[in-house]
Structures are given as C-alpha cells and as structure tokens.
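Model: You mentioned two targets. I'll fold them one after the other.
Researcher: Yes, keep them separate.
Model: Target one:
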Amino acid sequence: NHPALLLADEPTGNLDTTTGRQVVEMMRALSASGLAVVLVTHNPAIARQADQILNLTDGLIREEG
C-alpha cells in the first residue's frame, strides 16, 4: 500500500526522548517523500519541527505564525 496521508495522534506521547526523536525524523522523511503527515501533539518542541502549525483553541482552528 502507498497511502497519501498519515494521521498520527500523539505518536511520541509515551516514548522516551531518543525514540520520540526517531519517530519525528521518520515522519519528516515520509513527508519529504511526498506523503502528507498530520500529527497531533501537545509538545511544543515537536510542533516547532512541522512545516505548518495549526492550533485548536476554544473550538476554532487557527494557523500559527
């Protein structure tokens, strides 16, 4: 299978720092290969690595930046 979209809800939430970093690096590589990656996180350090950041606040989605 070759999906066009990867949805990831808190993929690093229960991982140690090293493994979490590896997961994020893998997702960035997948994104660079053309796969659309949507990642949900509460971790600002992980969010800062994204190409685009959207925040959900009080039921509204807003683009950061």
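Model: Target two:
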Amino acid sequence: MILYTWLAGAWTAVLWFFTFGVARHLFGVFPRERAGEVTTALFPGYFIVAIALGLGATLILWFNRRAPHANAALILQLAALSALTAIPLFIQPAMAVHAPGTTGFARWHGLSMALNLFSLIAVPAASLLVLRRSKE
C-alpha cells in the first residue's frame, strides 16, 4: 500500500494545489478575463495529471480490495475519477459554446466547480478511510 499512499497523496496534492494555489493566485493577480484564459490553458495538463494519478491509485486499491473499507474507498475514488473525467470531456466543451459572463457559461462553470469540489473532498476521504483502517 506504499505506492497507493504515494499516488493518493499526489492526487490529493495536485487537486488542492491547482484549485486553491494556482487558480486562486491567478485570479488574484490578473484581471478576471486574463486569469480565466491562463487557467483554461492549464486545464489539459491539470486533468491529465489528476486523472493519471487517480487511475493509478484506484487500480492499486482495486487489487487490494481486501483492505478494510477498500470497497467504500473505491466507490469514492471512482466517483471522483468520473467527475474529473467528465469535466474536460463534456463540461468544458459545453462551456466553450458560451461566452464568459453569460448565464450558459455560469451554469456549466458552476457544475465544473461542484464536480471539482466533490473530488477535492472525496479523494482524501477515501485515502484516509483506507489508510487509517489498514494501520489498525
């Protein structure tokens, strides 16, 4: 479970760092429109790294399903992975049709933020559930 610990920790760190570090800083330093452009340009790399780490952590957990609470953690991780995958595949293309500042853009952006927030909570919760129980 050492590799799981590393991958799940890195997955959590990437999610939190990009959301509350990079994106927040960009919107604090640049005008809103420019910060949005830069953040949008960074999204492909963010999602590729996050999804790759999530796949790795989830596969390791899948093969260690006998660990206490592994199945509950798998459900959380699969839900987070699905949410993170849906954002670049479905939500961002739908958002791109609408100009920033419009109701359509705001609706899709809100859904994107909600799914990202869910992942920010679900990933560390799953990790803590498994790692806490595996040490007992």
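Researcher: Noted. Anything on target two?
Model: DSSP finds four helices and no strands in the chain.
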